[in-house]
Amino acid sequence: MTQIFKGRYTAHTDDPFVVFIIGFRINKIWAIHKWWPASRTMKPMLQTLFTHPEKGFLWAEPFLYRGGAGLIQYWRSFDELERFARLPSEPHLSAWRRFNQAIGADGSMGIWHETYLVQARQYECVYGNMPVFGLARATQHVPAIGNRETARLRLGGHNEPAVPSPATPLQQ
Q: Residue 168: what pLDDT?
């Protein structure tokens, strides 16, 4: 069973990083012969990335939404993300080519991505009663106490909590 960290936690890193969100949407359910193979290309890419963190990949969290699925990825740099996407020796480039050949602009399946370059200390997040998740899994998972208690404090500002935070017990 996944360990739940009781209380409030946040992520900590002093380094810049990249958030890359990618996904697909099934537009024509009856075109399964087209979208099913394309939807299965993420697994080998992730296996490569989790096996080779030296490529710059930090972590990924999958999610579902109406009509599709997505993945939030964390990378050390845009250059490393782009290198993975473009190098012929990496699994992404061949999957991209196959998608363009099989689906292209026929409308049976949609694909999308968003890329965010985050400078050091220009992010904030909080996780309450959660397993280690998201950016905290990609970086460092720390209690959201003291100068990390509120969103503004985590962003380097000053304020007091609007609602008193429950105590965060020390994990064993």
A: 83
